[in-house]
């Protein structure tokens, strides 16, 4: 799968231009940090990539049509369900037997440093654990495109570092990863950079 942006730009209804002239091809196995000042359109660009927003300039080409997963800055889980439950579910939705789903979910949790909390209910996870769990759950759904919006915005420095270490591992899971961020550590964890400051009108 590849994602191609050709001359992509976007304006608000009142005519203010967020960004313009973005030309880039995004490839599987790479992670892209979308950076820029507040209000530059980082989250809007992710929504354009997902197909949720149509750009006012240019076009987005997805080859072939892709499955998209999102991870937002505020982790949302089911309070009474365990970490293992959260990661097993995407496998079961695709028709896996519960036992097989739990085996694969357990392996993913171990890979992302969450083996010790796989039996812990979501309500008892720390902020960093909950955010990493959202990343693992997204990977378990086998997306072609994984969009991550400000994953460390609500975390302290040391907790953010554990999340950034997990972000580095995402590239090995057969998808395109795009991360909107202000965080230097998150930026450093990515293989490529999309700087919206260079795409201002």
Q: Overview of this structure, please?
A:
There is one protein chain. With 201 residues, the chain is of the alpha/beta class. It has two domains: 1-67 and 144-200, Rossmann fold (3-Layer(aba) Sandwich), CATH 3.40.50; 76-142. Helix content is 33%, strand content 25%. The chain has six helices and eight strands. The chain has helices at 42-50, 83-93, 98-111, 127-140, 157-169, 184-189, and strands spanning 2-11, 17-27, 31-35, 57-63, 68-71, 145-149, 176-180, 192-195. A five-stranded parallel beta sheet has the order 5-6-7-3-8, with helices on both faces. Strand 6, helix 5 (157-169) and strand 7 form a beta-alpha-beta unit. Helix 2 runs parallel beside helix 4 (127-140) and helix 4 (127-140) packs parallel to helix 5. The radius of gyration is 17 Å and the shape is globular. The two termini are 30 Å apart. The mean pLDDT is 93.
């Amino acid at each position: 799968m590849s994602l191609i942006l050709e001359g992509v730009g976007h304006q608000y209804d009142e005519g203010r231009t967020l960004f313009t002239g973005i030309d880039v091809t995004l490839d599987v196995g790479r992670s892209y940090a979308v950076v820029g000042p507040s209000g530059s359109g980082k989250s809007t660009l992710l929504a354009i990539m997902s197909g949720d927003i149509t750009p006012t300039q240019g076009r987005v080409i997805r080859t072939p049509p892709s499955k998209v997963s999102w991870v937002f800055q505020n982790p949302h889980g089911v309070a009474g369900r365990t970490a293992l439950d959260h990661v097993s579910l995407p496998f079961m939705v695709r028709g896996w037997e519960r036992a097989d789903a739990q085996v694969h979910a357990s392996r993913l949790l171990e890979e992302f440093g969450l083996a010790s909390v796989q039996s812990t209910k979501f309500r008892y996870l720390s902020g960093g654990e909950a955010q990493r769990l959202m990343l693992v759950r997204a990977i378990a759904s086998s997306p072609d495109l994984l969009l991550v919006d400000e994953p460390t915005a609500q975390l302290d420095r040391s907790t953010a570092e554990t999340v950034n270490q997990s972000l580095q591992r995402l590239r090995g899971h057969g998808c395109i990863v795009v991360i909107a961020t202000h965080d230097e550590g998150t930026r450093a964890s990515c293989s490529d950079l999309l700087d919206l400051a260079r795409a201002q009108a």
